[in-house]
Amino acid sequence: MTPASPWVRRVTVTILELGIRDRFEFVQTKWPHAWGTRTVVPHPEFMGDTPVARIPALVTADFTLADSHSICDYLNGEFGKFRLLARDGAARWRALATMSVANAIIEAQVARRAELLRTGSDRSDDFIAKMRDRQLRCFEALEKQVPASGTEFDLAQITIAVACGYDDWRYGNDWRGVVPKLAGWFDSISQRPSLQATKPAETPQS
Ligand SMILES: N[C@@H](CCC(=O)N[C@@H](CS)C(=O)NCC(=O)O)C(=O)O
Fold first, then answer.
1. Distance of alpha carbon 69 from the chain centroid
2. Half-sphere exposure of 132 (CA within 13 A, CB side)
């Protein structure tokens, strides 16, 4: 894990919301900014656990889950009695639909960050602009379905909150001007202990 990764944050917030923090050992990743364009080895043992070499990854005695989607699914089913994401039916499909948009924001945020870390003339401003456009377009879609206050803070809401938090941290408040209702919702849920405990911060470089 690292506090800089929104994908990791999805998982750590899920763990904290389920109250199962003491069941896991967290291993802090250290890596250079070169991760954007080069293969970095976060932890020698880790490469033996997953060929993907990305975080988050959850290593259990029986298997390794190598992305936030499968990890959150596992945690929700195995430890959460499907409280954060319905096992099946319309509620599940609605949540997946929302998450597919929120996850696209996070993908664009991370891809844009990797491109911004390039220092040479091969950096593409077009690509950076394309990712920013996708972020704002998807935020606008979420503005039309801001969670009602008092509803369950589920995996879809966790994912939206992580996307909002990352944009605030990395890219300033552009998004807030575009989606004021969503920004208000994010501010209102930001005091949750799970979000307070997982605020974004830079990855240690060595
Ligand atoms: N779809 C994956 C994405 C994971 C991912 O992109 N993690 C980034 C950190 S935010 C990473 O480990 N990047 C290192 C690399 O690409 O070498 C997930 O949901 O976990």
1. 10
2. 15
For residue 111, the CA-to-ligand 1 centroid distance in Å is 10
Backbone angles phi and psi of 12, in degrees to 5: -70, -35
Residue 151 · residue 83 · CB < 8 Å: no
Residue minimizing CA distance to atom 16 of ligand 1: 54
Q: Does the C-beta of 33 come closer than 6 Å to ligand 1?
A: no
134 CA → ligand 1 middle, Å: 18
Q: Which amino acid is at 47?
A: M
pTM recorded for the entire structure: 0.97
Domains and CATH numbers, the chain: 6-78 (3.40.30.10), 89-192 (1.20.1050.10)
pLDDT in tens, the chain (206 residues): 999 999 999 999 999 999 999 999 999 988 888 888 888 877 788 888 999 999 999 999 999 999 999 999 999 999 999 999 999 999 999 999 999 999 999 999 999 999 999 988 989 999 999 999 999 999 999 999 999 988 999 999 999 999 999 999 999 999 999 999 999 999 999 999 999 999 999 998 87
Whether residue 103 has its Cβ less than 6 Å from ligand 1: no
